[in-house]
Design a protein that fits this description.
Strand content: 15-25%
Number of domains: 2
Bound molecules: oxa(dethia)-CoA
CATH topology of the largest domain: Peroxisomal Thiolase, Chain A, domain 1
Low-confidence stretches: none
Structural class: alpha/beta
CATH architecture of the largest domain: 3-Layer(aba) Sandwich
CATH superfamily of the largest domain: Thiolase/Chalcone synthase
Order of helices and strands: EEHHEHEHEHEHEEEHEHEHHHEE
Largest sheet: 5 strands, mixed
Number of helices: 11
CATH class of the largest domain: Alpha Beta
Strand order of the largest sheet: 1-7-6-4-5
């Protein structure tokens, strides 16, 4: 039995930060950001708005869209690297706020590949036959870990996310068909937040050294991301004997338009097959793919029966791809 997506939902904070706003904070330009990344603007949370707040909006939206009573939800998986706090898990906070009295849940740390990791985990729970309603959410509040004096990172990221409801497929053609997931910790140093964990517990010193902010060696990550996204997208097509022309929509993680373009080109996708919204939201880490999915469903670019390919690359390094036949 396959797991299938029965509903999608997204949440983007209202406040827009444009490239021109960033020009006032760091030595950058709208021209540089747009030409090197494809980003024109991103969203940022309002004062006091948190990851669990965004997740709660999404979870409530998923209940409504999938006609689910909160008591029917069995598992809540939240992919994020910016939980409200290290413990309790964001999933517990959300469980309480939506009144999912019979659910258990956990947070999953897979950075930009987090949503695909979480979706695969949820898929296996449904396939086991034990669970029939699994919420999978990917949200990040990147503004909480961005150093707005560091032009190497602050122009790239934004806040927001989305989610899906997973249920047993009713039609055996539909649902999650396959996934390929990878991690390679030898890339750990190139994209990280090093402070606040057991290595560098929070102290005056870690704050003075700015260790609680995200740091990235963009050039190295770019090189691995271009290869990782393209390789894993090609690999899943070959493994399943699917031609790129049969894919209705390629939904890649939105980190840099140049990374997306090069992976799409290598796989042989034409522009109409590729979903891109990085111009409006930047990189929302675990949030990008579920935001894309919900937008694409709403705008009719994903329909019942559509064949969808997801792919992501991120910190860890982590990367993965997934094939879905849309519909329940
Ligand atoms: O989702 C998680 C995975 N993350 C990624 O996939 C991100 C991967 N990396 C990238 O997307 C790109 O490497 C960046 C967008 C971060 C940078 O683009 P790039 O074409 O690799 O630029 P670069 O790092 O080679 O920098 C080129 C120049 C440098 O100046 P010099 O040394 O040539 O004088 C940088 O200092 O651009 C400079 N620069 C900037 N200039 C204006 C770097 N950041 C900025 C900036 N505004 N924000």
């Amino acid at each position: 039995m396959r797991a299938a997506v029965s509903a999608t939902y997204r949440y983007l904070p209202k406040q827009i930060m444009t490239n021109h706003d960033l020009e006032k904070m760091v030595d950058t330009s709208d021209e540089w950001i747009q030409s090197r990344t494809g980003i024109a603007e991103r969203r940022v949370v309002s004062e006091g708005e948190t990851t669990s707040d965004m997740c709660t909006h999404i979870a409530k939206g998923l209940l409504e869209q999938s006609n689910t009573d909160p008591n029917e939800v069995e598992v809540i998986i939240i992919a994020t690297v910016t939980p409200d706090m290290p413990t309790p898990a964001t999933a517990s906070l959300v469980q309480n706020r939506i009144g999912a009295n019979n659910a258990w849940g956990f947070d999953l740390s897979g950075a930009c590949t987090g949503f695909i990791y979480a979706l695969d985990t949820g898929t296996r729970l449904v396939e086991s036959g034990k669970y029939k309603k699994v919420m999978v959410i990917g949200v990040d509040t990147m503004s909480a870990v961005l150093d707005y004096t560091d032009r190497n990172t602050c122009v790239l990221f934004g806040d927001g996310g989305g989610g899906i409801m997973l249920e047993p497929a009713e039609n055996e053609e539909n649902g999650i068909i396959d996934s390929i997931l990878r991690t390679d910790g030898s890339g750990a140093d190139y994209l990280k937040i090093s402070g606040g964990g057991s290595l560098h517990p929070a102290s005056h010193d870690t704050v003075d050294q700015n260790l609680h902010y995200i740091r990235q060696d963009g050039k190295v990550v770019f090189k691995y991301a271009v290869k990782g996204m393209a390789d894993i997208s090609e690999e899943i097509l070959i493994k399943n004997n699917i031609k790129s022309s049969s894919i209705d929509l390629y939904v890649p993680h939105q980190a840099n338009k140049r990374i997306i373009d090069s992976a799409a080109k290598r796989c042989g996708f034409i522009d109409d097959q590729v979903y891109i919204n990085i111009n409006r939201y930047g990189n929302t880490t675990a949030g990008t793919i579920p935001i894309c999915l919900d937008e694409a469903v709403e705008s009719g670019r994903i329909n019942k029966g559509s064949l969808i390919l997801l792919a992501a690359f991120g910190a860890g390094f982590t990367w993965g791809s997934m094939l879905i036949r849309w519909g329940k």
